[in-house]
Design brief:
about 500 residues; Uridine Diphospho-n-acetylenolpyruvylglucosamine Reductase, domain 3; Rossmann fold
Length: about 500
């Protein structure tokens, strides 16, 4: 099968090109990208797509890079393909983001191609990765200790927002496709094609620089391994295909498990149900953890195995308060029934319930809005005869029934203070330190500092959402009842 037939088959099998689409081609001017442009130019009408060349000058290699840009522009013009050339200061980008030059160049290149595709109204970016690149990629991931996501290598069809580009890529609702039509073609076949077609590609001397990890693999390790196994390249490519199928199966299981394990999720933190997490098979536990890290740190690539395994051990066996440090300022903390993955410098969220940070006077009867405007506290007085039938087993944890005649001082709502105590129901009127009460009730540590306390003078009347103090509870002699309710603020229509 010749190269054009191979590319045609790859495009058809993986649905790489969409009829009517404008495809942005990342063209450097080297043999791989020149071959890609030459072949797709021949296949464009067949697949009913328009082509547009994109070339990014990285601000490296001085005059050689200038000549590459001129070559791409002249070739595109001669072949009748529109072309856009831009320049980026990759060294400055690397310094600003603390990245290696290769990674900064990769981020800048994909961000440029994505922005160009969006300006043109296209849905697809095509790059010239080939079968030998696949071998190098899989081996690089293997040597760095990757899981299935890395060992499956590159895929013929991927998505740009999954490329760990972070702030380099302006993520929008419309997802951009990343396609690799040459992924099943070898470097030798590409070079033979260029020679047969009389193409004279540019040569990037940096590909010979063995200080780069990928170049050392290409020029030193792979030839050495081939002395042990001459079919190494084919074997690695086939293994990547097998692992890709296994990875897809694992992702399906992850999609089912995620909503069962994740209690809450935001851009700052993810809370996991510990019992549900610990009931999962080990492979799914790893996937859940990696997915959580990825969602909070989308630019993070090549997550260190040691970090993941330490965090996994904390998740599986850690006691309350156990922590695990993860890359890019993430911290995993074990609470009573949850595990919280959040920024290490940011305290965990106090949770979705009501909370206070300062003392608020409470009118009786009346209502007051709690800080943040999301919760409202209401009080009302009713005769004992008006109590609902289920008052003894009150099913609403944000409602309390109190003996109104025991309220001898103004009520207020405040956070905890040093020395606070109460008389929890069931202890025969004995006092208990609030600190011990919160621990016994397994109230998450992150919620304790702002947990609302309804107080009468200095005495706690109700730990909101939890227990009423026994002295203020309804007794046989109670005649008037104070009902205190906390409820979320409802959206209200506003006249305009």
């Amino acid at each position: 099968m010749d190269v054009i037939q191979q590319v045609r088959a790859t495009i058809a099998r993986h649905h790489l090109l969409l009829p009517g689409d404008t495809v942005v081609l990342g063209i450097s001017g080297g043999p791989d990208s020149l071959c890609l442009l030459h072949i797709l130019r021949q296949l464009a009408d067949e697949f009913r797509v328009a082509l547009h060349v994109g070339h990014l000058h990285h601000g490296l290699r001085d005059q050689e890079a200038d000549e590459d840009a001129r070559f791409v522009a002249e070739t595109s013009r001669a072949w009748g393909v529109p072309c856009t050339i831009e320049q980026a200061d990759v060294p400055a980008l690397a310094r600003a983001r603390g990245l290696a030059i290769e990674e900064a160049a990769r981020q800048a290149r994909y961000a440029f191609l994505a922005a160009l595709a969006r300006r043109l109204g296209g849905q697809t970016v095509a790059v010239a990765h080939h079968a030998d690149d696949q071998v190098e990629t899989v081996l690089m991931h293997f040597l760095r200790g990757s899981g299935l996501a890395g060992l499956r290598g590159m895929r013929p069809l991927a998505w740009l927002d999954e490329m760990r580009l972070g702030e380099a890529l302006d993520l929008q609702d419309d997802r951009l496709r990343l396609v690799r039509p040459l992924l099943e073609v070898s470097r030798a076949e590409i070079e033979a094609y260029c020679a047969a077609q009389g193409l004279q590609p540019r040569f990037d001397r940096s590909n010979l620089d063995r200080t780069y990890f990928r170049n050392r693999l290409r020029h030193e390790l792979i030839p050495l391994l081939e002395t042990y196994q001459p079919n190494l390249r084919q074997i690695v490519v086939r293994t990547a295909e097998v692992l890709a199928a296994d990875y897809e199966l694992l992702r399906e299981q992850l999609a089912r498990a995620w909503p069962q394990v994740v209690c809450s999720e935001s851009a700052q933190s993810i809370e996991l149900d510990l019992a549900a997490f610990r009931a999962l098979p080990l492979g799914l536990q790893r996937s859940i953890l990696r997915e959580g890290i990825h969602r909070l740190r989308r630019s993070l690539r090549n997550i260190n195995w040691v970090h993941v395994e330490h965090a996994l051990e904390v998740l599986r066996r850690g006691q309350v308060g156990a922590k695990a440090t993860l890359p890019q300022g993430l911290l995993l903390t074990i609470s009573y029934a949850k595990a919280i993955l959040a920024h290490a410098q940011r305290p965990p969220s106090p949770g979705p319930g009501p909370h206070v940070t300062q003392e608020l006077p409470i009118p009786v009867p009346g209502e007051v809005s709690l800080p943040g405007g999301r919760w409202l506290l209401r009080t009302r007085l009713i005769p004992r005869a008006a109590l609902p039938p289920d008052w003894r087993h009150n099913p609403d944890r944000l409602r309390a029934f109190l003996d109104a005649d025991k309220i001898a001082a103004p009520l207020s709502l405040r956070p905890r203070r040093e020395g606070d105590w109460l008389r929890p129901l069931g202890l025969g009127g004995r006092r208990q330190k609030l600190r011990d009460f919160l621990i016994n009730r397994k109230i998450p540590q992150a919620e304790r500092a702002t947990l609302p306390l309804l107080v009468c003078g200095q005495e706690i009347v109700w730990v909101v959402g939890w227990d009423v103090d026994e002295h203020y509870a309804i007794g046989e002699a109670t005649e008037r009842v104070l009902v205190v309710e906390v409820e979320p603020v409802q959206e209200r229509d506003v006249e305009t």
